[in-house]
Amino acid sequence: MARPPAAAPVLRAEPEPPRVEPAPQPAQPTAQPSEAPTTTSVSLQNPPGSTKAEKIAWLARQAERCEECRGLGTLRDTMVFSVGNPEATLMFVGEAPGFEEERQREPFVGPAGQLLTKIIQTMGLRRPEDIYISNIVKFRPLEGDARHQGTRNRKPSPIEMAAAVKYVLAEISVIQPKAIVALGATAAEGLLNLSGSVSAMRGRFHDLNGIPVMVTYHPSYLLRAEGDGPVRAKAEKRKVWEDMLKVMERLGLPISERQQKFFA
């Protein structure tokens, strides 16, 4: 097994320094014809930077001031971008930040995130060193009066997803992971334009521009299943684990006999 990529710092949005306009230059006495220089257009699909980390940091700054997202009036103010190693071969994508994610400005740090971390560790990987985690929407969806929303969360609407999905697609273009795990139906819809139940989409790989995508249940679904008793909770966890075994196999990760039998 290849040595996991080196750890990268948690990526957070940084405000851009104020733009300084250059001083006007005196006109030249004569204009000599010359060939126009060739320049590369800077865009979300072609972010500036010499490393993946620099490109991701630039994307985070663009997401911070996303006028299309903020202009909806249905999202809260705090931008939560991503966490993990830009050199990772495995990427997880969820739907949107919740209360804890907004408070800590990091995706998947609440109860569902803690369960995701356990899944990652059970795969024999480390968070954040070996993986990269992001969301379809970078702002927590607003529910009622923002001042009294408290811990209440909701899934993003199709309009909110359409405004924000360009950022996670740009991240994928930079990271170029060898596999993506779409956590829940919202992530599947945003990445793959698929609708329907996760049960109908999971268990097999889908294609996103040549990158295999495994759709599986969101960790919050597994937490809700625990309320239905241990038998159902174990059965649903086994389904997710079977999906992760397929991902591990695709990535060439070692799978022990003990790992094969988890939740069986």
Notes on the protein architecture:
The chain has 264 residues and is an alpha/beta fold. The chain is 37% helix and 13% strand. The protein has one domain: 3-Layer(aba) Sandwich (Uracil-DNA Glycosylase, subunit E), CATH 3.40.470.10. The chain has 10 helices and 8 strands. It has a 6-stranded mixed sheet, sandwiched between helices. A hairpin with a 2-residue loop joins strand 7 (205-208) and strand 8. Mean pLDDT is 89; it is low at 12-23 and 25-40.
Secondary-structure topology with pairs:
Elements (H helix, E strand, L loop, with lengths): L51 H13 L2 H4 L4 E5 L3 E2 L5 E5 L4 H6 L6 H12 L8 E5 L3 E3 L16 H18 L3 E5 L1 H8 L5 H4 L3 E4 L2 E6 L2 H7 L4 H22 L5 H4 L4
Helix pairs in contact: 1-5, 4-8, 8-9
Brief description of this entry?
With 264 residues, the protein is α/β, with parallel strands linked by helices. The chain has helices at residues 52-64, 67-70, 99-104, 111-122, 158-175, 185-192, 198-201, 219-225, 230-251, 257-260, and strands at 75-79, 83-84, 90-94, 131-135, 139-141, 179-183, 205-208, 211-216.
